[in-house]
Queue: 2 jobs
Job 1
Amino acid sequence: MSKSVIETPPKGGFSFDLCKRNEMLAKKGVNSPSFRKTGTTIVGLIFQDGVILGADTRATEGPIVCDKNCEKIHYMAPNIYCCGAGTAADTEAVTDMVSSQLQLHRYHTGRESRVVTALTLLKRHLFNYQGYVSAALVLGGVDVTGPHLHTIYPHGSTDTLPFATMGSGSLAAMAVFESNYREGLTRDEGIKLVTEAICSGIFNDLGSGSNVDICVITKGGKEYLRNHLQPNPRTYTSSKGYSFPKKTEVLLTKITPLKEKVEIIEGGGDVMEE
Amino acid sequence: MFMQIFEYNGSALVAMVGKNCFAIASDRRLGVQLQTIATDFQRISKIHDRLFLGLSGLATDAQTLYQRLVFRHKLYQLREERDMKPETFASLVSAILYEKRFGPYFCQPVIAGLGDEDKPFICTMDSIGAKELAKDFVVAGTASESLYGACESMFKENMEPEELFETVSQALLASVDRDCLSGWGGHVYVV
């Protein structure tokens, strides 16, 4: 309960005021709602010049696909990208938060961000919430110390690997990686392998689907290939579309013209004088 | 008795993009589980002339959330001396919902607005603020499964306002007919 007269916007972090009410509802037999998960197949691998990250693009809400083309490769820094699996709100919020922290750190130090910095920030946050922030991440980037690829689990443990997969389709993708990965892949071979791994996730795992997104990060820069491959195009629509011979019955129509916003410029718009 | 919290009041919301316009529609039923208590309930509210917000799910949380958002928007208007852009508003709603990550509001918002140069913007979120931006249509509520199907087949690119209104209404009415918890007609806003 707020004691002040004006409710000021909160200072940040989580707020637990509705927890008691929700617990009371749970006792009465109310089931809590399902959150949007990203089912997912996310992968990363290190090739000779840097890191390649890949992800599918399906977002699910229970058994329904709610977004057929969502973005799972999140920006962290110009040289670091992160793929997220798990609860969609958690992956988005955690990657946005760490991305802002990295930006502030860059302003402070005047240097390019390092992948281990992002890694530590993420794992500390996730461990702090003991796995309740359900975000499983594949973090990859190239910094002054070279290319790096890490996986981060919702409870805060991390692994450093030459190739990694996460998400419900991780077994399907890992099968492809384990058979075909070798050190010193070229860029095209790497992209081809990542695409194959994601496709194997898309076609064999029910929680992953739609298109393949790829992100190639090298010392020189990054290349974000959104919808690099679209193996599930929408071919079943009829070209003439729907026509409605029987119109909807309208009970009441109200048309409100929008007012033009009038701008008042004082003093002929001159700049302030000394 | 066991029930899903989202099915306590029942709702159906849909927003669609047209050519330099958007339409947002909702059903009109308010119920307490299987009993109907109102047949003219407003689920869609205006934030400013070019931004509308629809809230599905538990009606009490929808009202509280709406009041909080209007408060934040008014503060923004006082500070910035202009209206909020739809993308900014969506980020605000997402942040407010995620703040309550471990004790969430039982609401799913649908945001529809016209941005710069009359470019339509629609988005929906789950109850903890995971944004879903779409270029064609978004749905929310108990009738969402039928709405996905109806919109998927009836949607066309670049519809003019009259055709958009017709499409949205038909999709909404067809879907709520298959859902016992929503119905009693619809409210459609075309901007």
Job 2
Amino acid sequence: MLATRVFSLVGKRAISTSVCVRAHESVVKSEDFSLPAYMDRRDHPLPEVAHVKHLSASQKALKEKEKASWSSLSMDEKVELYRIKFKESFAEMNRGSNEWKTVVGGAMFFIGFTALVIMWQKHYVLPHNLSHTVVYGPLPQSFDKEWVAKQTKRMLDMKVNPIQGLASKWDYEKNEWKK
Amino acid sequence: MAHAAQVGLQDATSPIMEELITFHDHALMIIFLISFLVLYALFLTLTTKLTNTNISDAQEMETVWTILPAIILVLIALPSLRILYMTDEVNDPSLTIKSIGHQWYWTYEYTDYGGLIFNSYMLPPLFLEPGDLRLLDVDNRVVLPIEAPIRMMITSQDVLHSWAVPTLGLKTDAIPGRLNQTTFTATRPGVYYGQCSEICGANHSFMPIVLELIPLKIFEMGPVFTL
């Protein structure tokens, strides 16, 4: 049921023809792509056929009245004539939808789920000194804070990348990082 | 050497590397400009309200977007070729060192004025002192003088390896049965690190290259081994 209504919105026969037809049986008849078809498209502003194929008696009378001077038509009659020709106005066919909220919400949900997976991994998979299950084993000793401190001191003594890199950020006179 | 999570190039220790850094900046700027332009065009395509689908025959635009990329490519090619030829300039090296790749260590031969041959193995983790560089430090470094053109003859004794020192702008494949030559001149004293750059087996990640560049006066005094 919902699928039928969704397909009817598309209006083109690109998706299941018979489903689209079932949704619009009163106004849509032809199923063949080679026959002229109605479509509400911004880049195809004048459809090949009118929206309403079989006019009721009052509609037929209105069409007769249309052959006379248009200034004698009331506003409602003009709108009725428009709706015979076209299904949706440009404003209606170009309307936005709330789909973006679903998309953004779904994306954020899955990103959040990924965050949970990463939290699980950090606890159970990445190495640390605690006693729960560890898949990868302990971190190398060169990650210990004292080791990194001695290593950094050594890199500064060696003047590693003194032009724009590490040693360029150290103030050798004051023995501290440059502000 | 690179610091952790470093993305950019290391600072240059040779004139060629300085040229390469400048060229990299130049090429990257062109890449950024083109990418930004394409991103902008894509954005306009996705947000336009225009619906004309019958556009054809845009000869002037087609000519421009053929000629302009050709010009951009020339602007990239000319500096690139300039540096390429610069690396091959005749520079009369003062010293020739041979570097032979093995699985999984390097052998260095200083045979110009005598016969010094030694192996250079990565320091295993258990042999490291606190502050040493894991996976980078070696037992015997390649000691060389600064400000002198040095010729490296690189080959391999078993499989393909590659002798690379990024800060000097060097990377030369070590190919069994072939002698490859590269030259460099270091401008600053210091210790410079590189790693084997051609997959060569289980310990490919564990055969680093360490150069120790010292002033010529000290180099001439003789002691080349450092522990």
